[in-house]
Amino acid sequence: MTTTYAVLSEGLEKRYGADVHALRGLDLAVAEGTVCGVLGPNGAGKTTVVRILTTLTAPDAGTALVAGHDVLTDPRAVRRSIGVAGQYASVDGELTGRENLRLFAKLLRIRGPAGRARADELLERFELTDAADRAARTYSGGMRRRLDLAASLLTRPRVLFLDEPTTGLDPHSRNQIWRAVRELADGGTTVLLTTQYLEEADRLADDIVLIDRGRAAHRGTPAELKARIGSYAEVVLAEEPTEAAAETAILAAAAVLDQLTGAEPALDRERRTAGAVAKDPALTLPRLVRELDAAGVPVADASLRPPTLDEVFLRLTDRTDPRAPHTPHRHDEPHDERHDKEHAA
């Protein structure tokens, strides 16, 4: 069966000034009707990719097709085919939810009864009907994000770009967005999702592209990426009567893990745990327990399990914390969310 790609880019390059090389020959292929998670550390080039694919920024080199249209030679056709929801909800707080959607419908040339009907349909779909006639400034963060997502779907886009859509949301609101995204993909919409929540990508993405330093460094399904780095060995230590004894125990556990896995162990003294990625598929739990016992490590529990996507991210990008708050980075492009929404409309 021939795969049809909703997003296809080759050799994308983007510089900002003489010193910042945001993209360095990035290739991307997203099959129709799938969710592609784009991950990467701060400054890796994620937002620049989205801006190029949504025609907000021109690449310096390379090509990109979205829904079969070239982002450089046919940007209007690209815009007619896509929806975009950025990192922050771009709704007018003084307008009601219904008025916001009707305004965006007019901007998108969905006028008259068709625009009103589509707005009402989306309010119901995102469980906003009861609050439809309240000012959006009274909405919770989750409600505002759902309203913004509804606005991005007014034109029934073939491709939907979500740039960190659940940043700052509580778990309940996040789950609502996740459910909506999964339903969209199941209905045939292609979704390109950038996120720093690794659980989000694990739950939603059919495929993942890990961008690092402006290139697509790794790609595959969540299961394939996890298998690539091996299993995760973790030791929970028994309580010790003194801090000195506890420190001796955790360092002894770290030494055993270092010897068996060849990876630098992660130590959590508060939880009394030591863990490391075990690339060697021959490592077994009985062997781990035997080596710990031989070293005299007081073990409360030991496990050998598949890695989480967080651990995959850390190993493949060599970063310390994928969920750290975003801070400006010299590879990041200045981003005007309001300009983006107006331009896309």
List the helices and strands and how they pair.
Elements: E1 5-16, E2 20-31, E3 35-39, H1 46-53, E4 61-66, E5 69-70, H2 75-81, E6 82-85, H3 97-107, H4 112-125, H5 141-152, E7 159-163, H6 171-186, E8 190-194, H7 198-204, E9 207-212, E10 215-220, H8 222-229, E11 231-237, H9 243-261, E12 266-268, E13 273-278, H10 285-294, E14 299-305, H11 309-317, H12 337-344
Parallel strand pairs: 3-8, 3-9, 6-7, 7-8
Antiparallel strand pairs: 1-2, 1-4, 4-5, 9-10, 11-13, 11-14, 12-13
Helix pairs in contact: 3-4, 5-6, 8-11
Provide tags for this entry.
single chain, 345 residues, alpha/beta, Rossmann fold, Alpha-Beta Plaits, 2 domains, six-stranded mixed sheet, 12 helices, 25% strand, elongated, disordered C terminus
Q: What's the gist of this structure?
A:
It contains 12 helices and 14 strands. The chain is an alpha/beta fold and 345 residues long.
Structure report:
Keywords: ATP-binding, Nucleotide-binding. This is ATP-binding cassette domain-containing protein. The strands form three sheets. The protein has a six-stranded mixed sheet, with helices on both faces. It has a four-stranded antiparallel sheet with strand order 2-1-4-5, with helices on one face. β1 and β2 (20-31) form a beta hairpin. 37% of the residues lie in helices and 25% in strands. The protein has twelve helices and 14 strands. It folds into two domains: 5-226 and 324-335 and 337-341, Rossmann fold (3-Layer(aba) Sandwich); 231-305, Alpha-Beta Plaits, CATH 3.30.70. Residues 320-345 have low confidence and may be disordered. α3 crosses α4 (112-125), α5 (141-152) packs parallel to α6 (171-186) and α8 (222-229) packs across α11 (309-317). The protein has 345 residues and is of the alpha/beta class.
